Amino acid sequence: MWTHKAWQGRFLAHPLPSDERLRHYAHWCNAVEGNTTFYATPARDTVASWARQTDPDFRFVIKLPKLITHERRLTGVDDALRAFLDAVEPLGPRADALWIQLPGSFGPTDVPTLARFLRGLSRSHRYAVEVRDAAFFEDPRATRALEEALAAATAEWIPFDTTAFFRSPPTSDAERDAWTKKPHMPFRSLARTDRPIVRYLGRDAVAQTVEGWRRWVDIVVEWLREGRSPTVFIHTPDNAEAPMLARRFHDEVRARVPELDALPEPIADEPLTLF
Question: What highest taxon heads this organism's lineage (predicted)?
Answer without folding.
Answer: Bacteria
